[in-house]
Amino acid sequence: MTPSGNPYGKRKVAVAGVALSDCGRVDDATPYALHAQAARRALADCGLAREDIDGFASAGLGTLAPVEVAEYLGLRPTWVDSTSVGGSTWEVMAAHAADAIAAGHARAVLLVYGSTARADLKARRRTANLSFGARGPLQFEVPYGHTLIAKYAMAARRHMHRYGTTPEQLAEVAVQARANAATNPDALYRDPITVDEVLAGPVIADPFTKLHCCIRSDGGCAVLLVAEDLVPDLAVPPVWVLGSGTAVSHTTMSEWEDFTVSPAAVSGRLAFARSGVRPDEIEIAQLYDAFTYMTLVTLEDLGFCAKGEGGAFVGGGRLLRDGALPVNTDGGGLSACHPGMRGLFLLVEAVRQLRGTAGGGRQVHRPDGAGGSRPPRLAAVSGTGGWFCSSGTVVLGAG
After folding, report:
1. Tag placement on the chain: N or C end, fewer CB within 10 Å?
2. Per its UniProt record, what PANTHER family does this chain match (predicted)?
3. Residue 109: which H helix or E strand, with range?
């Protein structure tokens, strides 16, 4: 029974612990080790014990994911999730976990991820993935060389054609992400870049040059969500899950009705409605940014600006840590860390910012109305999977 007396949907849910594993260049660890390192650090962050965990969610590792990872961590969960929808996996899992905790099906759910994508490539244990395969509906696109990045590039070109968005505006996203990474000691790339440098780089898929694209790194992270009755036991302030939304769109490009609209238009609308928060109340946003266009179109689809106005919206330093709407304050996948399905990293950064513990000169400060400043109070986190195939959006509030 929940504290309210209703076992279904009434128990509040908080993010208790968050942590990163070693990130960037990690040549001497397995993905399992990164999972374990992140999990241990997340428990240490909030002061809870492994025995408190009764729910577990993971994807991307093991033949029987997440059973193998749970066994490696010494867990025997009674609630489990292995949803895998690309980069939005973790926001979707967080939504599932919050629903399970609210309904009384679990008390503490651990989400954990780890990948050595960069190290595996360097050691030639794997090759780069140009596509997701050639089975099912994808068989009708792969023979024509329609690579993963080409799909994003086509969408960006459509936005440019319809709304006049420019390469320079897309480059601004990369420049500001790098500026945010400058004071993040965990970021892989911290040296400043300019719009001209972004535009002058080698073309990967028109209109994207190299710096329009995410980096490849190693790394892992963990997030622990708990029921409200565990909050008094935490060593850190809680961050509350206020609302969430999920959506899927398409697999084949021919089934995508509008290249300029992502499924975040649906997941965001649901998340804001369920949380009772408006986009103009959000003080920071952590958005999936495998490519610069993703940031721009997600800002539009979440309602931070009108459709077609994203190019102008990202100008003037708006996305910087001290800008009007700080976005990807750790440097994002474009500069900080991108080991694969990056969505869980977005939740870690949002929680740290809302707690006011980001530190290292990278903490966001908002006016407190009395001439001083305070940490942000509301954050939107939105993950994207596939080539805008899926989306999960979570609204978080400071305790």
Report:
1. N
2. ACETYL-COA C-ACETYLTRANSFERASE, NON-SPECIFIC LIPID-TRANSFER PROTEIN-LIKE 2
3. strand 108-115
